[in-house]
Amino acid sequence: MSDVLELVDVSVVREGRALVDQVSWSVKEGERWVILGPNGAGKTTLLNVASSYLFPTKGTATILGETLGRPGTDVFELRPRIGMAGIAMADKLPKRQTVLETVLTAAYGMTATWQEEYEEVDEQRARAFLDRLGMNDLLDRKFGTLSEGERKRTLIARALMTDPELLLLDEPAAGLDLGGREDLVRRLGRLASDPLAPSMAMVTHHVEEIAPGFTHVLMIRQGKVVAAGPIDLELTSRNLSVCFGLPLVVERNEHHRWSAHGLPLR
Ligand SMILES: Nc1ncnc2c1ncn2[C@@H]1O[C@H](COP(=O)(O)OP(=O)(O)O)[C@@H](O)[C@H]1O
Ligand SMILES: [Mg+2]
Predict the structure, then answer these.
(1) What is the pTM of this model?
(2) Name one GO molecular function term (predicted).
(3) What gap in Å lies between CA 184 and CA 189, rounded to an integer?
């Protein structure tokens, strides 16, 4: 299996502080990674490197075979091969565009509908992704009027539109109510279990948001890797406690869903 992502000793330093600190991490084709870590751990910064929008201060980042900063690596050719859905993206998209347009514009690598003529085949693809994410009844709604959950599902459909080889999701379930979260977890579970779906990395703070089908976990704390590897081996109470800095117990139930809680005071 070839490397989709290969980070070697990557640091991102800002104002003398390492936001990402000597991270080595490799994602192979077909793997589905969860990235866990407390607020400010550097998860979004790491995804910004993985999506080629941020270059490492030190170390090397190779994405889909292209090493950032090397002659011959053109990030503008690389970016359409990576699907990214995060909070920052939502703010850049025009609020008055419809849901269908919001997804369609991804095919043309722009955030506004400058080009009014879309290929029929693109529209069919956009409709299919939106259908898969349960957005069928909202195709003509303005993006700016969507609920949090609807917006997140639209962004994931949008990220899939370029047929990416790597899909990066930054806290896709943050801010959703219980029903919204469970609906999204089910959909992400289907995506994660689909052998034709791209390799994935999803950032979250909550193990409850990990869908069955995710295969690996990366835990980071203060920019450093705490644990990385197969989820069954590495998502342990011990690693999670180190990652979040307090004693935690993590469990997995018969439905392959995770939960975590602190220990009662004695
Ligand atoms: N451009 C920047 N300059 C300085 N500090 C930053 C910058 N971007 C993020 N940070 C800081 O880096 C740390 C990691 O941020 P981030 O990657 O967003 O964490 P996470 O996504 O894990 O919550 C935070 O303390 C944040 O305040
Ligand atoms: Mg973040």
Answers:
(1) 0.93
(2) ATP binding
(3) 8
Ligand 1 pocket, residue 14 CB under 6 Å: yes
Over residues 24-55, the pLDDT tens digits come to: 999 999 999 999 999 999 999 999 999 999 99
* 158's tokens: 């949008």
What CATH number corresponds to the domain at position 135?
A: 3.40.50.300
pLDDT digits (tens, 9 = 90+) for 101-160: 999 988 776 555 555 566 788 899 999 999 999 999 999 999 999 998 899 999 999 999
Range list of β-strands (E), 194-235: 199-204, 216-221, 224-230
Q: Decide: 47 and 37 in contact? Cβ < 8 Å.
A: no
Is the CB of 15 within 6 Å of ligand 1? yes
Q: What is the tally of structural domains in the chain?
A: 1
Full residue range of the structural domain in which residue 182 is found: 3-262
Nearest CA to ligand 1 atom 27: 40
